[in-house]
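Issue 218. Parser rejects a valid record. Input:
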Amino acid sequence: MNRITTPMIYFDGDARDAISFYMSALDFQMVFIETFSNYHFHDPSFPLNPADRNKIAYAVLTADGNSGNGDGIIVADRTIDEGLEDGSGAVELNLQVNNRREVLHIENKFLADDRTQIIDDLYPTAYSSSIVRLMDPFGITWRIMSNDRVSPFNWFAGSNRRPKNKP
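Output the parser choked on:
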């Protein structure tokens, strides 16, 4: 199982400024960027506040312009509806694995401890076929995602979303 753990830093509307700063300060290159309006384009049922249209949903910055080497960061804005409890700069750990089976395997290991909480149940996006967000027993949020992607035209089709309780 190949795995890469990358910090994901959330901001309260100033992700674009953070991206510029980190690209300059760390000599990072942008590999991928998507705004919340892109999410809404792929899935019109995605709730989108007009004030969030141009906020950054997901941006990948790396040292060598390759998203697969683990030397980088992920930067994103929260939506107005999500907000940030502690302001800008909240951090999650993003664990990338090869496929959905590996996501489920790691999720089940986390859930073996009753103190683990599901934040977002398993879902697909335009950049990963399987993502789950969990808070571990120590308060650390993990986004576990597969590297395989689904077609942007059917990324929500057949979603096996589960309720936010343990399977």
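Fixed in the parser; the record now loads. The mean pLDDT is 78.
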